[in-house]
Prior knowledge:
Shape: elongated
Oligomer: single chain
CATH architecture of the largest domain: Sandwich
Structural class: alpha+beta
Helix content: 10-25%
Amino acid sequence: MKKGIFLTLFMSLIALAAGCGGGGGGGGGGGATTTISGTPFKGPFVSGTVNVYDVSGGITTSGRQLLGTGAINSDGSYTITIPATSNPVMVEVVGGSYKDETSPTGALVALATPLRAVIPSGASNASVAVTPFTELATQRAAVATTSIPAAITEANQKVSLLYQVPDIISTTPIDPSVAFPSGSLASSKNYGIALAAVSQLAKTQGSLAAALNRLSVNSGTISDVAAAEFTTALTTFLTSQQNANSATVPSLDATPFRNVGSQVAVTLQPQKTRAIANGADSVTMTASLSPAVPDNSEVTFSITSGNAVFSNGQNSIKAGTAGSAAAATITATAAGAVTVNATYLPGISGNSTVTFVIPTVSISASPNAALPNGTNRITLTATVASGVPEVTTVSFAVSSGTATLVTPATVTLVNGVASVDVVSSTPGDVTVAVTYAPGVSSSATIKFATPAKAVVTLALKQTRNNVRFLDLNLDHSPASGATYSSNRTLNSDMNVFGVFPSAATLRVNILRSSGVTGFNASAGTPFVEFTYDITGNVPVFSISNAVLGLFNPATPDVSTEVPLTTDDFNISVSFLDAQGNPL
Length: 583
């Protein structure tokens, strides 16, 4: 009989050892472990026991399974090692005592009501604060009807949201009854101040349990009465001698908690909605918070989609508020839409989208060459595609050669187009560059020379078949600029039947070389060439009085005439020097 009793006792001790960690650690089975650590706070703790439970069976005494236990360290922190688990985990503080930060003497108070915190998984190391606010979240998660991990996540965010407290789980509170250490995080300071309000309310209500009952968020909201009680308690603490930071936090208006019970909204407004993806064109994103929050309240900006960076070179950045607004700037080097989110607290955020584009600018010249007499002009035209509304000008500059911009170098775009005139008194090539924005530029090379000859070739823009004749005037302006010299057909099925030059016009008759139906002229393929001697200013060529005669099977002896204009032709002009070299 005794042997059986001892055996039973021995097995029980083994089971207990497997379920509990010791002192600063624990876990069992020799498998993967994880560490849960943090700082309990109801005022700074000086002693107490911390238990960690698997609560996959429910956030109740009957549904939990002990994973590890340990004592609060002398600095008020705890560290417990448990078997790694993907199940939800609860951290509970029981017994011990803490310093009442609202007491003039800093008296130690025994913890009469356990404090708990819950996280959705114990699979990896976690920092878990255990405070009255995490207790409120645990109470809400315990009555939720969703899955336990989802209920825990929602409850922790709900408490943070309603009480304007930063992340209640991972933020470490700081005692506001002593001077905040230099460099302390604003979130830690605010957490400690909010907990002092809970302590003050516990005094008014007679116990922590009664205060938590008043502050409950189980309904999903905070009553106006509870919000007023909380802010009154906070004001009482802040205006008392126990507030060791009265110089920086003198009143409720210096905290985020003046908005407890009301929903702060974040509106994110971009400086512009379209920007250039050149890494230099920045967009300032301004987050406005309403109702107003204190200056230096923290807002986290993050890029949730698209490719861009903030001024720190990262895809997220924190900024403090000033006048209830915070700002951050983004740039991009790739085209596309970028969505930015600005978060004040979990669940309190706003977003906006900026489109980054890669503009192009092209430049063309008319004519391509001019006399170097300081008078004859070449017009350079810049065309911008995929531009942005904020950039309304282009800048022209002579980058090589000798020439002068007749019109202003910076020109306003009209429907994406801008032009400048160039003259020169020095023969030679001139390169003119046009710039729309950093990294968005183009250039064109023009000639200032006195050409000896001009070779003009003609092609139709549209294919024409069965052409029996083509009559046209090849005009040049100015009239004194050129004298007709010769012609050459480039299509063996046609003949230049007649050429009749005058001062400014060359009348040309082109016929089929043989057959009844006529010749075919393919789109863009030159069919005739004319050579001119240049005698003055560089001429410009055009077509007038053009008529196309097409074979008509219905009336084979009578051609169908089709009138044409300059727009129906491709006119190509090549200028040659006296040695026949292209200019």
